[in-house]
Write a sequence for this structure.
């Protein structure tokens, strides 16, 4: 199932700088997109979501941008903090409520 | 903050044995889900459950799998005759509402190891 792809397995940024995590999808029928963060030995934790009818949603240091024509979304974290180091999953939600996840991107924020 | 709890954290079972994974969803949530993540792979949807019925299931969720809400608090996943390829991390999730970008809240998972 390749409907949601995160092509970068890892990303390393300096503390205080911007982290940009990318996600591509193939199904234009997805209604919502969600970002989750996952620490080792824990379950995914919800971060932020965006409706397919919007192009931006912001919550504190986290902003998600959606480009429907390109079937692409990105999560921006500004400023990045060492505690942000985790695996980030992009997920798409269709009209059935189930989540379809990408492979995840491991973010490392260096002090 | 309320959370989804899963037990056990790690389950080791012989191939062919039955296993039951347990979850206590957040108390006011009405929609329940199971996902799994095989090591090195994506988190995959297994099943969703509402009003004591399966709402949707994936191709993975074959006749060997079943779910149940035996009382007002627990939500269980049973694998009737485990196979080696069932080894994975199993996550339970719950949500207050259906879809519409409502976040699903995940437990910390049960690591299932089939020998």
């Amino acid at each position: 199932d390749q409907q949601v792809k995160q092509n970068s397995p890892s990303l390393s940024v300096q503390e205080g700088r911007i982290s940009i995590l990318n996600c591509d999808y193939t199904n234009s029928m997805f209604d919502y997109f969600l970002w989750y963060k996952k620490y080792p030995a824990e379950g995914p934790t919800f971060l932020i979501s965006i409706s397919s009818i919007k192009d931006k949603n912001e919550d504190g240091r986290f902003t998600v941008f959606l480009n429907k024509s390109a079937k692409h979304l990105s999560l921006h974290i500004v400023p990045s903090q060492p505690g942000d180091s985790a695996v980030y999953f992009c997920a798409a939600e269709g009209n059935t409520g189930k989540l379809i996840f990408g492979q995840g991107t491991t973010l490392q924020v260096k002090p | 903050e309320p959370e989804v709890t899963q037990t056990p954290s790690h389950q080791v079972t012989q191939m062919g044995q039955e296993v039951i994974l347990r979850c206590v969803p957040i108390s006011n949530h009405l929609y329940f889900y199971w996902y799994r993540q095989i090591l090195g792979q994506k988190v995959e949807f297994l099943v969703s459950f509402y009003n004591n019925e399966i709402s949707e299931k994936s191709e993975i969720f074959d006749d060997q799998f079943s779910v149940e809400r035996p009382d007002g608090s627990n939500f269980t996943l049973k694998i009737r005759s485990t196979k080696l390829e069932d080894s994975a991390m199993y996550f339970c999730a719950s949500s207050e509402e259906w879809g519409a970008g409502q976040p699903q809240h995940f437990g910390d998972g049960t690591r299932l190891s089939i020998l």
Summary: The radius of gyration of chain A is 13 Å.
